[in-house]
């Protein structure tokens, strides 16, 4: 919990929150402040949730947060198993509920921001099935789903473009360069056309050149097809050779083996293949899928900064620490009865690892055997091409077997000799070791005797002197040989140097003259360069001054032009307004009543009078309605009572008719009984 709070505080003190909390101040936050902090973090993930919780009810706040957490796929930790308790803790601002939520949100802010953005467009609206019976609603729902799929594809393309690192500036620059190249090519084509138009029969020559280009392209395509067909033929021949070799092997196996051995081999091969299919290959596929999934996830994520790497490393360290703690707890809680099972588990894991290793070795051996077979096929084909057939006859095979037997006997003899030599070598080694021990014992006795006599180290010094004298004689001989060789080499080098001097003398004379010319040209070049630099500097200063002046004049011209256009537009608008005012005055002052009616003032006056008369009529109508409201309501009440009275009469009449019909039926039944 302490590591969790420390992580939350570190993240909240960074951008974009900048809360400046420490562990004590964060732990002392009240429930309302914690809820506001959680709302701020959710607002950073989804801007719609950047709300002050004091402006909404607690139930609305909890509902809003629960909806967003559900969209973000947050699962409450094991300590908050009951969903009602989690909701209650979220409403009350409980630390045990909000701290894990903050820790989970701050760990993956960028990922959750993307998920919240996508949820606005990809959370599907559930339409009831009875509404989908309508064709219009069904069509709209289908269009909605198609647009959702299109948005998914566009978002994937957008993420791939972001990952690819292409920027709009680079694309625009490439497009500009391509357009410039296009313009240059168009100019070159126009120039070449103008040059060709002066030549006689230029149309015919252009047609011939076009045909030549087409034939060259066709030749290249045919050559490519030929190469592809050659490669296909080569692969087909190799496949045929492999099939023939397999056929020969199968025939040889069938001819030389028995049914029991064949069945045994087939069973072994079947067991091996079943192990590969059921255990090894699915495990490898699963590991490959997981690695591909993680790689795709890494590729889909944006480029990581050093801060992201440090955060991931800290998270990795935390997870490793948790794993170690769990392992220690498990080792502490280990029961003696489980030790036997652990021993069996270890044995089973060791056996499975050995089995996997042997399967991999067998697979590698098979691959190596197949590669060797391919090499053998290639070598046999080369030998067949160079020397002809290599199939042995029966006599040649017998001779080959007899040679093998003789070589085998010779090999066995040599092997016995080697064994004897090895045994003798062991004896000699033992003898050498014994002699060395005796030599060491004698040396120790000699040293003890020398110490007694007061001449310790005499034998060692004598041996060293003998060894040094032997080494000195060898070195003297080597020095003599080396001096002879060096004298011969010096003579050869002197002769070669004299020859080279004689051959290089005229070249050196020419080189001296050329060096003098080079120095003169270098001085002249330096002087010219100084003159050029001074002239270029003066021209550059003049050019920069002129550019500044031109730039200022252009800006002034643009400003004056914009002022002119603005004044011109204002003038036009004022002229239009003045013209409308003149026309209005002319129409208003005109003696003609028709012309006066067209004036705006007259029109608005007429509209005002019409509205006043309409208001007067409506007020009179309102007055009449108010006066007749009471009698009308009374009359309506009377009519309602009358309607109820008539309804009661109708019901009474119907009941009376039913009773009369029942009495008549009873009377008729009594008469029938009397007749009987």
Q: Rounded to an integer, what's the Rg over CA atoms?
A: 55 Å
- Helix-strand sequence: HHHHHHHHHHHHHHHHH
Query: What global shape is seen?
Result: extended
Record field, number of beta strands? 0
Strand percentage: under 5%
Tell me the CATH superfamily of the domain at 1-123.
Intraflagellar transport protein 81, N-terminal domain
Global mean pLDDT: 79
What do these coordinates show?
The protein has 17 helices and no strands. With 676 residues, the protein is mainly α. Among the domains are: 123 residues, Orthogonal Bundle (Actin-binding Protein, T-fimbrin, domain 1), CATH 1.10.418; 95 residues. The protein is extended and about 160 Å long. It is found in: Cytoplasm, Cytoskeleton, Cilium basal body. Its main location: cytoplasm. Belongs to the IFT81 family.
Ordered list of secondary-structure elements with their pairings:
Layout: H1 2-13, H2 23-27, H3 31-45, H4 58-71, H5 83-92, H6 95-107, H7 109-122, H8 135-164, H9 168-197, H10 202-256, H11 259-300, H12 306-332, H13 337-387, H14 394-453, H15 458-589, H16 593-597, H17 600-675
Helix pairs in contact: 1-6, 3-6, 4-5
Protein name: Intraflagellar transport protein 81 homolog
Family: Belongs to the IFT81 family.
Main location: cytoplasm
């Amino acid at each position: 919990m302490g590591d969790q709070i420390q992580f939350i505080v570190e993240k909240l003190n960074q951008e974009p929150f900048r809360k400046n909390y420490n562990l004590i101040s964060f732990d002392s936050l009240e429930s309302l402040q914690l809820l506001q902090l959680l709302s701020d973090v959710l607002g950073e993930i989804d801007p719609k949730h950047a709300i002050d919780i004091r402006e909404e009810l607690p139930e609305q706040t909890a509902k809003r947060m629960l909806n967003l957490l559900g969209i973000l796929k947050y699962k409450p930790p094991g300590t908050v198993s009951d969903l009602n308790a989690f909701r209650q803790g979220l409403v009350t601002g409980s630390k045990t509920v909000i701290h894990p939520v903050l820790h989970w949100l701050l760990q993956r802010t960028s990922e959750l921001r993307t998920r919240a953005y996508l949820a606005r467009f990809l959370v599907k609206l559930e339409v009831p099935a009875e509404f989908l019976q309508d064709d219009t609603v069904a069509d709209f729902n289908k269009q909605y789903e198609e647009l959702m799929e299109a948005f998914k594809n566009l978002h994937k393309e957008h993420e791939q473009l972001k990952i690819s690192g292409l920027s709009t500036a680079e694309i625009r620059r490439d497009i500009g360069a391509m357009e410039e190249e296009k313009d240059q090519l168009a100019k070159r084509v126009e120039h070449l056309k103008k040059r060709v138009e002066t030549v006689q029969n230029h149309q015919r020559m252009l047609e011939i050149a076009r045909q030549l280009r087409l034939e060259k392209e066709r030749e290249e395509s045919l050559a490519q097809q030929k190469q592809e067909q050659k490669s296909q033929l080569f692969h087909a021949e190799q496949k045929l050779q492999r099939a023939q070799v397999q056929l020969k092997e199968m025939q040889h196996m069938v001819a030389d083996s028995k049914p029991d051995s064949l069945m045994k081999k087939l069973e072994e091969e079947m067991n091996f293949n079943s192990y590969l299919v059921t255990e090894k290959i699915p495990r490898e596929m699963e590991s490959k899928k997981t690695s591909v999934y993680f790689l795709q996830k890494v590729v889909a994520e944006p480029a990581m900064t050093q801060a992201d790497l440090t955060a991931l490393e800290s998270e990795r360290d935390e997870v490793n620490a948790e794993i170690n703690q769990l392992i220690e707890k498990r080792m502490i809680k280990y029961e003696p009865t489980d030790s036997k099972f652990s021993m069996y588990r270890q044995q089973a894991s060791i056996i499975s690892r050995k089995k996997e290793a042997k399967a991999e070795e067998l697979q590698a051996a098979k691959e190596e055997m197949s590669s060797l077979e391919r090499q053998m096929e290639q070598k046999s084909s080369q030998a067949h091409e160079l020397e002809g057939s290599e199939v042995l006859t029966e006599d040649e095979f017998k001779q080959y077997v007899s040679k093998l037997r003789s070589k085998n006997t010779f090999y066995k003899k040599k092997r016995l000799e080697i064994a004897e030599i090895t045994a003798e070598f062991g004896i000699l080694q033992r003898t050498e070791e014994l002699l060395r021990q005796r030599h060491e014992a004698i040396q120790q006795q000699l040293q003890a005797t020398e110490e007694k006599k007061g001449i310790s180290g005499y034998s060692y010094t004598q041996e060293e002197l003998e060894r040094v004298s032997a080494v000195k004689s060898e070195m003297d001989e080597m020095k003599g040989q080396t001096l002879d060789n060096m004298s011969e080499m010096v003579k050869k080098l002197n002769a070669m140097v004299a020859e080279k001097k004689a051959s290089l003398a005229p070249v050196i004379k020419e080189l001296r003259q050329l060096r003098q010319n080079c120095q003169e040209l270098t001085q002249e070049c330096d002087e010219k360069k100084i003159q050029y630099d001074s002239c270029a500097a003066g021209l550059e200063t003049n050019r920069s001054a002129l550019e500044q002046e031109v730039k200022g004049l252009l800006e002034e011209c643009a400003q004056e032009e914009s002022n002119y256009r603005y004044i011109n537009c204002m003038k036009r608008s004022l002229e239009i307004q003045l013209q409308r005012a003149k026309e209005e005055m002319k129409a208003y002052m005109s003696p003609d009543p028709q012309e006066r009616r067209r004036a705006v003032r007259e029109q608005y006056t007429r509209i005002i009078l019409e509205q006043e008369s309409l208001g007067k009529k409506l007020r009179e109508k309102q007055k009449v309605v108010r006066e007749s409201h009471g009698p009308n309501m009374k009359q309506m009440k009377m009519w309602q009572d009358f309607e109820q009275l008539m309804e009661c009469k109708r019901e009474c009449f119907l009941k009376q008719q039913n009773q009369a019909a029942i009495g008549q039926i009873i009377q008729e039944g009594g008469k029938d009984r009397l007749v009987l």
